[in-house]
Amino acid sequence: MGKYNRLDQIMDYLKIHNLVTVEELVIATEASPATIRRDLIKLDQQGVISRTHGGVTLNRFIPAQPTTSEKIHKNFTEKQLIADMAAQLIKPGDSIALDAGTTTLEIAKRITQMPIRVITSDLHIALFLSEFKQIEVTIIGGKIDDSSQSCIGEHGRSLLLQINPDISFISCNSWSLNKGVTAPTEDKALIKASFAEKADRVILVADSSKYDSYSLFTSIRLNRFTDIITDNHLDAQTLQLLQCQPFTLHIAG
Amino acid sequence: MGKYNRLDQIMDYLKIHNLVTVEELVIATEASPATIRRDLIKLDQQGVISRTHGGVTLNRFIPAQPTTSEKIHKNFTEKQLIADMAAQLIKPGDSIALDAGTTTLEIAKRITQMPIRVITSDLHIALFLSEFKQIEVTIIGGKIDDSSQSCIGEHGRSLLLQINPDISFISCNSWSLNKGVTAPTEDKALIKASFAEKADRVILVADSSKYDSYSLFTSIRLNRFTDIITDNHLDAQTLQLLQCQPFTLHIAG
DNA sequence: ATTAAAATGATTAAATTTAATCATTTTAAT
DNA sequence: ATTAAAATGATTAAATTTAATCATTTTAAT
Prior knowledge:
The structure is a homodimer.
Chain A: H1 6-16, E1 19-20, H2 22-29, H3 33-46, E2 49-52, E3 55-58, H4 69-72, H5 78-88, E4 95-98, H6 102-109, E5 116-120, H7 123-129, E6 135-139, E7 142-145, E8 150-152, H8 154-162, E9 167-170, E10 175-176, E11 180-183, H9 186-197, E12 201-205, E13 217-220, E14 227-231, H10 236-243, E15 248-252
Parallel strand pairs in A: 4-5, 4-9, 5-6, 9-12, 12-14, 14-15
Antiparallel strand pairs in A: 1-3, 2-3, 7-8, 10-11, 11-13
The structure holds a DNA duplex.
């Protein structure tokens, strides 16, 4: 396996120190400023850090952040369009459930000023939303899955089965008409399924690039959803097929 | 109450954008660079943000971070000394429970390379430790308390009562021989008490400045603890009193 | 061991950010 | 309405960071 190199050293330093200068990393790694800058360019291209003229941080969350105001008004990704549409379905006073994921995090970013209750399995979403006073946040609890930094396991499931949200937003890495929403581990599949259990409205938020792929465990059949929000890059045939299904298909963008 | 001013605007911008430049804030607030810098100096003095020459972030956690290498080797606070001592009591393979708080977060920072299991109520600790592969993290779940960004309520308590850690580290804002460890709300007191329930060793980590103050709810009597770790600023009389108690008193520093 | 490629470090100029200063505008008190 | 104090904005020089270039060192393949 990959050995512990200077890039790992920089990453570990960034994990412990919020905002860092090149100078600090020079001291921590005993490399030259030029080398550190070259490393930072690599890490930046990987998308794991953010840089300014004079500062570096780990991208703990808030992925693919446009950094200049120019960019804010263009380069909307599919996920952002999907999140826009999803957020519009939420009304003040609602209780909503947010599955772990970047699309659901995008939804979270759009509801910060709304008086609502949110239940989530995602540490990033919980921490992010808990900074806004109008929002009451509940995290389901349980063992933390390293890759997604979200809760998995029976403990969180038991909480989800006790709660009846107005809307449950579920994201995924793979979905298809045949296999439904699938997940790579049984644990993750179980939590995802629990999100769909008690909600009045169950909404899949998934971009078209994830369509027609699948992982080992089926979590939720598509006909369990009341709505699916996706982007406008599905092919015509698929579109036709999905429009005949019992759920409402929303095309964002 | 205070109205929504430019400082709030800056803070809200920082909550959504990880790493930010003065230029961005100029655009977001429609103020001049000079004004933004003056605001940032204020926020920096309040300790809520970190600055470099060219970047600003919110201090999401990792409090009172020394920013230059000089400072790393001096200015150790009492909390850090306490955390040093606490971390030394942890052995590879242990299961430990970490109460919410900055002292326990300091402990977390010292055990990142150790193969252990950690259970915590604190979102920051959970998120922080979940980035290190050797550590298995569990969060107790429940409603998030805004002020401490940690879990409170019955759901998390039920998890704590199912788990038997080797050591439970408990922090507090107020402690005394008479009233024990106290907390401002019943919810918080209950969670804290639950941390002390099942652990083999129950350790209070609290600096001396918090001694002899109290809040409304008593959470844990001092004689429930097996150890107390504090700093060397307790007065002689108190010291003598505490040394006669059944717990082991550790003085850090 | 030799060689070529890649990585690193030092140097310098260019770009960017900050601090200091002072004029102007806004706010708050009477 | 008037006045003083505070806040803000513009300008410029100083400080800091970055990018570019090239020499040197390290690494990997034969």
